[in-house]
Amino acid sequence: MTATHDAAGKFDASRAGEYEQQSRIALAGYDACHELAACMLAAALGTGRAARILVAGAGGGAREVVTAAALEPHWRFTAVDPSGPMLALAVARLAESGLDARTEIVRGTVSDLPPDEAFDAATLIGVLHHLAGDDAKRAILQDIARRLRPGAPLILAGNHQAYASQPLLLAAWGERWRQQGAGPEEVEAKRAKILQGADPPHSEQAVADLLREGGFEPPLRFFSSLFWGAWIARRRR
């Protein structure tokens, strides 16, 4: 199994069922990040034109597709995810939104797509920090770059910084759960889980380095929330 498939094993049926609610607690500004991601892509591509968008790690509520499709009616999407339960949830949300006809669903990884694909843009949201080690992170970025047109934009979003290195941010993250009704024991369980269950790039510079090594130009950050950041970067020409 690849590292990406290993990461997908964390997203079983029970986690898929709670994903949409809990992701909005763990990331303050979840919807705003997706809305701005769609706006950044539209600004980079130009509005009102047809485009093919690769959505890597689309499982869950397919929020990337739902939000972007509402802004740009001529975009079509290829949604890729190795987790069956998470992909099933995405398919359900796409059907509810009437977007199943505009979206190709692929259970697998970006590396499973034909190497001669030429997408106009891509998103990788909430994925990179679930991949263990820089090699796996670099590999998925390289796989995406190979399937993008030269100069095409990528939206990359996820946690960065080693959690234990930022105790104030980690404490505030716990307070976010308490703010949403979690008791002390649940807050501690959530904090222990994040410390053991993810491997984010350790700095914003590390994100930029991974993008450069993956075949992208220097990124521009457009959103931040505690450990979370969102950037746009173009595939090198």
TrEMBL record:
It holds the Pfam family Methyltransf_25. GO terms for biological process: methylation. CDD domains: AdoMet_MTases (cd02440). It comes from the Bacteria. Residues 53-151 form the Methyltransferase domain. Keywords: Methyltransferase, Transferase. GO terms for molecular function: methyltransferase activity. This is Class I SAM-dependent methyltransferase.
